[in-house]
């Protein structure tokens, strides 16, 4: 079976997912073709997941299918983009029909839920890894970048933090927990829900945004740097799930919320005047701090004391000496 | 050094390559943003190269930098697209400054020559592999697909065939040759020149096109299938370089031209009336056969006898039983 046939056979559902609007030519030629409506821009992001680095080498391929697309789609949410499609570069040590079927099933389900259509790809033999490139569209000049935060804005997040970090010891088999506590955390790890609708709702309102992948403090550092402002995070305002606190305890749950990766929840800065209407519309927005003049990220305790830790989330590489 | 800093540091030249036109936002945010002129479509292709599968695990990183981008850009040529930019997903076992510097240097050089700007990427730790996603633009409806060939068209290629296949035993150290013979073949393997200008010149003229990556016969099979026609390839008309014939001998050189991969020369079908003006304009076009009614690909010898072989080029995967 050739590579196109392989993709066509297993990923047929994703290649005709509802995202099809804007896809002028899909899988099967040298390139896919997208049509972008006049006045809109195309948003593009690439993410690679490597077995043994970003997910356990032995894992459920259905869950991996969900997670691999969700992680990439979350970058579209962070820009306020409307999803169009994605390409999949799949490197596999061997072709196993059962693995591919389950992986494709998870992927197809997430593609449908995100309204992303599979428009192209490449399959190669090698150590298991996946590279997704996602495409969305956004009205010209309305994309949510990291660089527009202004002193006085509120710092907000789009949901509970730390759940994926809390799940990691369960994923790795280093800890066990009651099913009732474990399940919501594991669900968050394996099938994070990209906040695409929230991202679109924040267009023209949020001044800066990103999705939390390296941990709240580290990612706030990206906004602070790009916007040339200081961010203050208030420890006591971090939204923590009951499941996370039950599994980790309150203090470790706060740590997970601050420094744990893989949340894929939006963090954004918002002029105070915009908050009420968004909350009234039912968006799950939590204020966790504020933007000030200066630079860097500070963590404040309930009394306003600076308790900024030194650790700053996960980086894939440290420079060699 | 964070991933953005890593990319910014080593790949700075590529990220401000001349392709910048159309890039509204480059590296450093959650997504890149592209502007597509009204009436044009965006062409997209993804290619993965894995160490030990698509190139020797130990090789010159400068040459790999050139080759990895050229292979991807060739898909833009095959669609007749004008280059805009590319993303790079780079998976590395370790960060070695000398390796990255040399790789980036080769990549930057090819990016400049193709007028492609690096707009985003991802760096991860893992077994060495590279996924490039390339972007170009093409006037609506004018992309060169594989599906428009019509009976009576000429079958043409954009240059000499088989040089990369002839280089492979030299690359792998399985054969030695005089430098004068080896160099043109090795140059073709390591830095194929995507036929971007030819692809654009064929817009509105060629009825079907692709770039030869799996070998002429196998790739002609893709056009025949997509266009629902038969293709006849005439063995004696294949353009062979002097270097290839000197290294392999005439018969093996023909085999390399028929079934060798990695040529990245365009193959296309052309109404006979279009040929003269393209040749007069100096395009390196060789007629190697003709389109007929029916299906599949046939190879004809000098006397018009059918000598179609059974082998059909390289496929990354065979289906498991």
Automatic annotation (TrEMBL), chains A, B:
UniProt-annotated binding residues for ATP: 121-122, 146, 213
Residues binding Mg(2+) 3, per UniProt: 30, 75, 211
All copies of domain PurM-like C-terminal, residue ranges: 151-299
Residues given in the record as Mg(2+) 4 binding sites: 30, 45, 75
Listed GO biological process terms: thiamine biosynthetic process; thiamine diphosphate biosynthetic process
Domain of life where this protein originates: Bacteria
Catalytic reaction equation(s): thiamine phosphate + ATP = thiamine diphosphate + ADP
Residue numbers binding Mg(2+) 2: 47, 75
Annotated binding of Mg(2+) 5, by residue: 214
Top-level enzyme category: transferase
Keyword Metal-binding carried by entry: yes
Pathway info: Cofactor biosynthesis; thiamine diphosphate biosynthesis; thiamine diphosphate from thiamine phosphate: step 1/1
Molecular function in Gene Ontology: ATP binding; magnesium ion binding; thiamine-phosphate kinase activity
Domain PurM-like N-terminal: from-to ranges: 28-138
Note: Reaction mechanism of ThiL seems to utilize a direct, inline transfer of the gamma-phosphate of ATP to TMP rather than a phosphorylated enzyme intermediate.
Free-text function comment from the UniProt entry: Catalyzes the ATP-dependent phosphorylation of thiamine-monophosphate (TMP) to form thiamine-pyrophosphate (TPP), the active form of vitamin B1.
Name the UniProt record assigns to this protein: Thiamine-monophosphate kinase
Lineage: Bacteria, Pseudomonadati, Pseudomonadota, Gammaproteobacteria, Pseudomonadales
Gene: thiL
């Amino acid at each position: 079976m050739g590579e196109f046939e392989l993709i066509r056979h297993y990923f047929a559902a994703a290649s005709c997912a509802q995202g099809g609007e804007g896809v002028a030519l899909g899988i099967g030629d040298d390139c896919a073709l997208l049509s972008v409506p006049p006045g809109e821009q195309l948003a593009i992001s690439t993410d690679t997941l490597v077995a043994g680095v970003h997910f356990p080498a032995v894992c459920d391929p259905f869950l991996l299918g969900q997670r691999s697309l969700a992680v990439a789609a979350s970058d579209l949410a962070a820009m306020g983009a409307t999803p169009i499609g994605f390409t999949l570069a799949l490197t596999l040590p061997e072709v196993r029909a059962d693995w591919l079927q389950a992986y494709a099933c998870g992927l197809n389900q997430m593609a449908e839920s995100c309204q992303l259509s599979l428009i192209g790809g490449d399959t190669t033999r090698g150590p298991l890894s996946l590279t997704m490139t996602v495409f969305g569209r956004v009205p010209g000049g309305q994309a949510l970048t990291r660089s527009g935060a202004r002193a006085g804005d509120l710092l907000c997040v789009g949901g509970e933090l730390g759940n994926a970090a809390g799940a990691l010891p369960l994923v790795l088999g280093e800890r066990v927990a009651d099913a009732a506590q474990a399940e919501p955390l594991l669900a968050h790890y394996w099938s994070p829900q990209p906040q695409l609708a929230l991202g679109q709702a924040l267009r023209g309102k949020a001044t800066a945004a990103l999705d939390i992948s390296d941990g709240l403090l580290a990612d706030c550092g990206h906004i602070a740097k790009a916007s040339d402002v200081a961010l203050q995070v208030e420890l006591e305002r971090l939204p923590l799930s009951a499941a996370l606190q039950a599994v980790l305890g309150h203090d470790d749950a706060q740590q997970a919320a601050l420094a744990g990766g893989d949340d894929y929840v939006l963090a954004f800065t918002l002029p105070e005047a915009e908050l009420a209407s968004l909350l009234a519309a039912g968006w799950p927005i939590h204020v966790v701090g504020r933007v000030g003049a200066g630079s860097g990220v500070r963590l404040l305790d309930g009394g306003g004391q600076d308790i900024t830790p030194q650790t700053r989330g996960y980086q894939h590489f440290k420079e060699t000496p």
